[in-house]
């Protein structure tokens, strides 16, 4: 359907699979049924999967003469990691770099269903090209697939975003921002009850409750080692009187300061601290 497609990666997941593509046009949900029909046709052809092992130098050279830049990059990384050979699988006229293993032929695939589309940056890096990700799942029989799809439909009814609105637990507002819920009265009652239970449990375990500020100086996160490696997932700093402040993305550096605030003896250990605070993380949509 898209002979000019550039192939990314396509691993199996806990409940199905996905594949990333760079395509000549964006896909729409209606495309999934067309692709699925083509998949069903290929399954009916009983096409064998043929494995070939190739020296990695040869594979890279050949790949560089094709549009498959993502596969070339993957093989170059494998080569840097010390790999000397790679495997390809051929199915009909389609050939793909893949570690495998696969079923012997398409007739063994069973029942398949393409579920959804999403955008995905190549290798998870927002500075790379955004590819089209197709999610799907497969089962040995149609009955098993139907059971799984029914379970997914039930799960949609229990989606926390849907229930949160319907039950008056929380709300989101575009003027506040994504991932920043407004806890409504019902939600606040739930939080307080859960915290009460957690605090009772922690008290039994010898935990002490503490509170720390929502912001801290840059120096704290440099000392803790978070900032050099985690800056992309923290909100940008605020500068005041020549000093940079960051919104708190994690509690532990603050708790280290609590530990250091008074003289300690080894007899004080273990010291267990607990905080019901708010952390702010500048993460990509869907990352949590």
Which structural class best describes the helix and strand composition? Answer: alpha+beta
Which range does the strand content fall in?
A: 15-25%
CATH A-level architecture of the largest domain: 2-Layer Sandwich
Kindly identify the CATH topology of the largest domain.
Threonyl-tRNA Synthetase, Chain A, domain 2
Average pLDDT, rounded to a whole number, is 94
CATH superfamily of the largest domain: Threonyl-trna Synthetase, Chain A, domain 2
> How many strands, what sense, and barrel or not for the largest sheet?
5 strands, antiparallel
Determine and state the CATH class of the largest domain.
Alpha Beta
H/E series = EEEHEHHEEEEHHEEHEEHHEEHE
Number of helices: 9
Poorly predicted regions = none
Rg, Å, rounded: 26 Å
Provide the number of structural domains.
3
